[in-house]
Amino acid sequence: AQKVTQAQTEISVVEKEDVTLDCVYETRDTTYYLFWYKQPPSGELVFLIRRNSFDEQNEISGRYSWNFQKSTSSFNFTITASQVVDSAVYFCALRFISNFGNEKLTFGTGTRLTIIP
Amino acid sequence: EPEVTQTPSHQVTQMGQEVILRCVPISNHLYFYWYRQILGQKVEFLVSFYNNEISEKSEIFDDQFSVERPDGSNFTLKIRSTKLEDSAMYFCAETGTAYGYTFGSGTRLTVV
To answer: Which residues in chain A show pLDDT less than 50?
Structure first.
C-alpha cells in the first residue's frame, strides 16, 4: 500500500509553544519522496519541504524542522516558538510510482493547527 | 518557487452545467496533474497527463471529466454536467522543478 497517516486531526497550542505534527507513511518503493505542505485559510497549497528516501538527515529552516526516520516510517514536522501565522492545515504527502508506472502524490488527511494568541 | 496560474479562482455554477477550469503551467514541463480537495478533506489524485495524453486516472475521473492541452500551453479540466458532489477545490500541478511538484493556487468550484 502507498499511504500517509496523519493521526492528529486538530491541534491547538498557545503562541510561542513548540508543536510537532506527526506523519507516518507506508510504501513498497525503495526510492520515494516525502513532502510537507501548508494550506492557509485562503486555500492554496504552500510547499514547505521535499525529502528523498536516501537522505535521513534532519533539516532545519528557521523555526521549522523535520525529523525523518526510516526505521519508524515517520517524517515529523516541528514548529518552534509558534506564531499565529502558523495557523493552517498541514499535509504530509508521499510521492510514489503507481502500478502504471506513473508518479503520483498521495496525501494524508491533514492536521489543522490553531495557534492561540 | 515558480508559479502555476489557475483561473478562475472561484466559480459558482448550476447543477448540470459544464465548467472548464484552466491552468497555465510553467513552460517546458511535460507532466501535469489535477487533484481535488472536497472541503475539509484530503487532497486526492484525479488524473495525470503526459505528452498530451492521459497517463493515469483515478476512479473519481469518470466520463464527466476530460482534460486537454488545446494550444500547447493552457491545461484544462472540463466537467461536462456538474453535480453537487463536484463542489471542491481543484488544483493543477506539474513536475519538473527542484521542488518536485508545483501546485497552482486552486479553483474553488461551487455547484448549486
So the answer is: none
